[in-house]
Specification:
The chain has a domain of 54 residues. The protein has five helices and no strands. The longest helix is centred in the C-terminal third of the chain and has 32 residues. The N terminus is likely disordered. By secondary structure, the protein is mainly alpha-helical.
């Protein structure tokens, strides 16, 4: 995977996850190369400013902007009130952390995938899958605290929104040819 593909793949990653909330699809099957991993881990150390690192910085900025758009859109759709802001802010922070971590882990994997042997590739994917699950668990806990204080009308809006977001990922996927 070339670094020049990272902005496109990051955009694809964000498009594949309609909202980084409970309605996220499960990680792709074992043979897939597009990992998801929204859990907190330190970002890789910065590299010297090259065209590759500038591209990665641009991708990171795009991920942050897309995350903020999703957060503000969901906040608006749920009509979050000032009294609900502490729980909303906690939920939004987990969304940000998951997006940052997903981006960092994706870039780390992309940087090494060309030199990984099959065993290292599987180990890397397993690591990403575990991180994805951990991130979803954190997001679920934060959302449950928010959902508990929503009005009935807001809960109804959230239920509808999450059902709509989950519907495409709930469809069975075609079996991969062997």
């Amino acid at each position: 995977m070339r670094a020049s593909n990272l902005p496109h793949l990051a955009a694809l990653l964000l498009a594949a996850v309609p909202l980084p909330v409970l309605a996220q699809p499960a990680p792709p099957s074992l043979g897939a190369t597009q990992p998801f991993a929204p859990t907190a881990m330190p970002a890789p150390s910065p590299a010297p400013a090259t065209s590759q690192s500038r591209g990665l910085a641009q991708t990171q900025s795009q991920v942050q902007m897309a995350t903020e758009q999703r957060i503000s859109g969901l906040q608006s759709q749920l009509a979050i009130t000032p009294a609900q802001m502490p729980q909303w802010s906690a939920f939004a922070q987990v969304m940000r952390e998951n997006a940052q971590t997903t981006d960092a882990l994706f870039r780390e994997r992309a940087a090494g995938v060309q030199t990984m042997n099959a065993a290292a590739n599987m180990q890397s994917y397993a690591q990403l899958s575990r991180a994805y699950g951990d991130g979803n668990e954190k997001l679920s806990v934060a959302f449950q605290a928010l959902y508990a204080i929503l009005s009935d009308q807001q809960k109804q809006a959230a239920d509808t929104l999450f059902r709509q977001q989950a519907a495409p990922s709930a469809q069975p996927q075609a079996a991969m040819p062997r």
